[in-house]
Amino acid sequence: MSNNTSGSELDFEQSIRKMTQFDLQPVMAIETEAYEFPWTEGIMADCLKVGYHCFVYEVNCEVRGYIIYSTVLDEVHLLNICIDPQYQGKGYGFSLLNWLIKYSREKGGKTLYLEVRASNHAAIRLYENMGFNELGIRPDYYPAKKGKEDAQLFACELTWY
Q1: Positive/negative CA dihedral, 43, 46, 48, 54
Q2: Distance between CA 36 and CA 13 in Å, rounded?
Q3: H-helix or E-strand containing 134?
Q4: Active-site annotation, residues
Q5: What domains appear along the chain, each with residue ranges and CATH number?
Q6: If we measure between CA atoms, which residue out of 90, 97, 82 comes closest to residue 27?
Q7: How do residues 26-67 score in pLDDT, each as one tens digit?
Q8: Quick one: CA torsion of 103, 14, 28, 36, rounded to 10 degrees?
Q9: Could you give the CA distance from residue 37 to residue 116 in angstroms, rounded to a whole number?
């Protein structure tokens, strides 16, 4: 870790740890509260089993958020990032994504990809403010109340971040 890391960044980074099976219950509580179409517990458990990178953000033994991503060579694909709705809007999503960017770059990642619901304007604004560029649309990617919803595909070059 560099010496120019601020105290608040250091505190945040020290609150991130690898997700375990014991975290599935609190993670699922956040997932179902935050999303209209949440992942299932089976999907979350499979992410741990297949070796995806799964981390939780924890404060005072309380899971407040999580991040799941995969890597192939120097490409990183953000699969899921979520902050407990009662803590959203306080900068934790930014901090968790910033942690992923720094961590991935340190591990040799060159590009970070993600998909986001076209209707998730807050997330899109966050990604654009953090240097992500839209690459295109994945039509009918997400389930929706009336059929399917498009996803916007974004990428961030980690080599210059």
Answers
A1: negative
A2: 29
A3: strand 133-144
A4: 115, 127
A5: 7-157 (3.40.630.30)
A6: 82
A7: 999 999 999 999 999 999 999 999 999 999 999 999 999 999
A8: -60
A9: 13
